[in-house]
Specification:
Strand content: 35-45%
Number of helices: 3
Structural class: alpha+beta
Helix content: 25-40%
Number of domains: 1
Radius of gyration: 23 Å
Largest sheet: 5 strands, mixed
Number of strands: 5
Strand order of the largest sheet: 1-2-3-4-5
Length: 142
């Protein structure tokens, strides 16, 4: 029994669509602002004792990927002064910052991971460039 070319093409399309549908990843992201025991100014002064910078940005997010939740806090150190150029020392500094912040959270288990970015922002006219170096720390490591 021969299958016509049209039928063969339809079968191939159905198999291809089935493959794409079953291999898709569905992710939902929502903001999850950090809740601290202290005011944000107090938190910034605690970080400022570790690294001096123009500004600190703290953002949290919760992601649900295929039904599995995870959460991450991002800590951006903007235009830090005397930032170590050595990656090992910078990574250690990032871990100190996360450890200090985590102890000030109302619930230290709110986030699975913490991302620390040392950001250099430069503005010239209407153009702003952003360069950064950073690391992600798992809660279990802290």
């Amino acid at each position: 029994m021969k299958i016509s070319q049209t039928m063969s093409n339809r079968i191939a399309v159905i198999l291809l669509l089935t493959f794409f549908i079953t291999s898709c990843t569905f992710t939902t992201t929502r903001t999850k602002p950090p809740e601290f025991k202290l005011s944000v100014d107090s938190i910034e002064s605690k970080i400022d004792s570790l690294v001096t910078c123009e500004h600190i940005t703290l953002n949290g997010a919760e992601k649900i990927t295929n039904g599995k939740p995870s959460s991450e806090m991002e800590i951006d150190i903007i235009n830090g002064k005397n930032i170590p150029s050595d990656d090992d020392r910078l990574k250690t500094l990032g871990k100190l910052i996360v450890s200090r912040l985590r102890t000030e959270l109302k619930n230290p288990n709110d986030y699975n991971t913490y991302k620390v970015l040392f950001v250099a922002l430069q503005t010239k006219g209407n153009l702003t460039t952003r360069n950064y170096k950073g690391w992600i720390y798992k809660s279990e490591e802290l």
